[in-house]
Amino acid sequence: MPASPLADLLKEVSRCSNCGLCQAACPIFRVTGKELGVARGRNQVLKALAEGSLEWSQDIYPVLFQCLLCRACMPHCFPAIPTHQIMAQARALYLERFGESDILRILFSDILPYPSRMNALVRAAALGQRSGLARLVPALKIFGWFSRTLKSLAQSQELVPPLPKRPLRTELAGRARRAPSSTGRVAYFIGCGINYMWPEVGEATMHLLDHIVEKVEKGEKGEKGEKGEKSEGDAGALILENYCCGLPAYSYGYIDAARLLARRNIDLILESGASEVITECASCSSFLKDYPVLFKDDPEYKTLAVDVSSRIRDLSEWLPEKNWPESKVHRIVTFHEPCHLGRFQDLAENPRSILQAIPNIEYREMREADWCCGGAGSYNVSQYELSMKVLDRKMNNIRETGADLLVTECPACMVQLAYGLKRHKLTRPILMSMSELLSSLI
């Protein structure tokens, strides 16, 4: 019989030795200096709640929801307590007791699993952003929850870059793709951030995938292949009709909503026949690889999740590290390491090796390159003040490098870093995704 969520929590947090080494790496502790802002303090609160010596109350909300889930504490933790998983489960328990946010419940359960509804919501948000109409939404009470959702989006429009008129999937809709075969095994998983906020990044990724897949195929079968000239629709990587990976729901404690999205993605990936699934979103790739954790009490789907997780590749994990064309101009490049790339997937060296191998690129490592930028999904909206303090530290480190290009591999990080450049009035460095930089070389 599965253990209760509280019993699971108690088992994990009881392993905390109270050594305090987590303080050295926790971005939130660094900006607050408060014990409840670091893993050791959170663990003690959760232990007291699980043992019953502390009553659940809404006062513990900051303790649970101000954690970045960045996993910075884990390399310093001798028992390797999975703080991000503990906090997600604790947030779920909090929501059970004090109720869910109507907006988040609708978003995670009634919109994200239905792409047409998500498309409509983002189109409305984009219209409101461009026209200023979103400021009038609170007066449109007839629209109920929809108006409240748009109001929330309007309040965060300073943080969010201008939304494109057309999402990436709309741009790619006319491009026919064959089903994977022995030579067409690569599929592209499009994350929500890329689809709705950074379609140009997705275009660059598709360019890279197509270029490398076609190069491999030509090497295997010759320029014309086994059955003559290949048509345009036969070339390159398969575009998956995937759903949100589920990480936003999981991070806020909506575990069942995350499982629903995960099941749909698992079924879709297995049906596609793809043996390698590529995404340039480190958050997506890390969570897709962690799907087995979601189904620890569901043997059937855990087996399927293990299969799917073995097929997932982050872009920098999949790309060749060497033999890139020379940059046409000399560039000084620095790299911001997303939490979900380095600490979650142990891929810290892959992007650095690629950047260092490009001729005419001068790579400069920034201080604390692996520290969270404070974006953490929508943390910059829900915890604005803390997020900005973390961001300011990051921007100072970026400025010190003197780089003219800032490269990263996560759309949420790109949102935060773009806002940081604007907040600090920096015209340099220029922000680029890894795929944009590499695509410009080929």
Detailed description of the structure:
The termini are far apart. The chain is 50% helix and 6% strand. Helix 1 (5-13) crosses helix 3 (39-51), helix 13 packs across helix 16 (299-309) and helix 21 (384-401) packs across helix 22. It has 23 helices and eight strands. It has four domains: 5-98, Alpha-helical ferredoxin (Fumarate Reductase Iron-sulfur Protein, Chain B, domain 2), CATH 1.10.1060; 102-155, no CATH class; 168-318; 331-439, Rossmann fold. The strands form two sheets. A four-stranded parallel β-sheet has the order 2-1-3-4, with helices on both faces. A four-stranded parallel β-sheet has the order 6-5-7-8. The chain is an alpha/beta fold.
Number of domains: 4
Any low-confidence stretches, pLDDT <50, length ≥5? 138-152, 221-234
The 3D shape can be described as: globular
Class of secondary structure makeup: alpha/beta
Helix content: 40-55%
User: Count of helical segments?
Assistant: 23
Number of strands: 8
Between the first and last Cα atoms, what is the distance in angstroms?
55 Å
Spatial extent as radius of gyration: 22 Å
Mean pLDDT: 88
Give, in spatial order, the strands making up the sheet with the most strands.
2-1-3-4
The largest pleated sheet is described as: 4 strands, parallel
Brief summary of the model shown:
This protein is α/β, with parallel strands linked by helices and 442 residues long.
Distinctive features:
442 residues, alpha/beta, Fumarate Reductase Iron-sulfur Protein, Chain B, domain 2, 4 domains, 4-stranded parallel β-sheet, 6% strand, globular
